[in-house]
Amino acid sequence: MTLPDGRMIYVDCRGHGSPTVVLESGIHDSSDVWSLTETRPPVPASPATLPGIARAARVCTYDRPGTIRYTTPPTLTDRSSPVAMPRSLPALVTELDQTLTAAGEKGPYLLVGHSFGGMIIRLYAQTHPERTAGLVFVDAFGPEIRDGLGADWPPYGRLVNRPGVPVERDPGFETIDLDGAMTAVAKGPRLPPVPMAVISKTAPFEVAPGTSHTLMKAVEAAWPRLQDSLVALGPNTPHVLATGSDHYVQLHDPDLVTATVDLALNRARQGPTAGSETTPAPGPPAR
């Protein structure tokens, strides 16, 4: 697809139905993470999240510039035109809206955000409430993490932007103004009253060798409180625990993500239902 500024953007849309589900990847990740699986025994092999959702709904995802293709070896995507880094969160929201318009996808959308993708869909909903049918946060990031970490936030913010992967040496590698993103969400308009759901990991983050254990201990302690803050964004918000999964729930338990999206779709089509609950997902015990 071609955006108004002439840049090319890779979009993958499948299936039929309304509202369209939009899958937003986390920082550095291309759309590949929605089409792959890494299910672990005794969980049987399942369809990846993107084709799983496409069986019963219209679903789209895309490559943000500078994100990682999960090839062998991993490379930066060449399917979307490069841009200058770092990027701002408002610019990412504008890019998402222009991408969906260029693809001919009419709103409102059910927005699904993994990790930092949760920040993108959150500000999108704040900016475009009339185009938002619902929100699903998949072990998502939020501005509350900055206060939750306190003095540990600056080194963690640096780790988020530079996680220690070889492709980060490429000048086109996606980096984001994280403090500006936090401020944009915190000072943005209220979220619209749409159905929401939150999926949270139960296993520790996987990080590059040499990452500070003290820092990650602080992050692991703050992460459940962050997830609770996402649940508190709206009434009757299901909180689903991805038992045995680390941060990449869509890879380790695609069925769980698909089922939660289906739940949010039904609520978006029929209106919110009563009752908020915390539901452990079936699967192996947490590591």
Biggest sheet statistics: 8 strands, mixed
The secondary-structure class comes to alpha/beta
Helix content: 25-40%
H/E element order = EEHEEEHEHEHHHEHEHHE
Question: Would you tell me the overall average pLDDT?
Answer: 93
Give the overall shape: globular
- Please give the radius of gyration in angstroms: 18 Å
As a percent range, the share of strand residues is 5-15%
Strand order, sheet with most strands: 1-3-2-6-7-8-9-10
Unreliable sequence segments:
272-287
User: In angstroms, what separates the terminal alpha carbons?
Assistant: 42 Å
Number of helices: 9
Number of strands: 10
Topology:
Blueprint: E1 11-14, E2 20-24, H1 49-54, E3 59-62, E4 68-69, E5 75-76, H2 89-102, E6 109-114, H3 117-127, E7 132-138, H4 144-149, H5 153-161, H6 178-186, E8 196-201, H7 213-231, E9 239-242, H8 249-252, H9 254-270, E10 278-280
Parallel strand pairs: 2-3, 2-6, 6-7, 7-8, 8-9, 9-10
Antiparallel strand pairs: 1-3, 4-5
Helix pairs in contact: 2-3, 3-6
Walk me through what this model shows:
With 287 residues, the chain is an alpha/beta fold. It has helices at 49-54, 89-102, 117-127, 144-149, 153-161, 178-186, 213-231, 249-252, 254-270, and strands spanning 11-14, 20-24, 59-62, 68-69, 75-76, 109-114, 132-138, 196-201, 239-242, 278-280. The strands form two sheets. The protein has an eight-stranded mixed sheet, with helices on both faces. It has a two-stranded antiparallel ribbon with strand order 4-5. Helix 2 (89-102) crosses helix 3 (117-127). Residues 272-287 have low confidence and may be disordered.
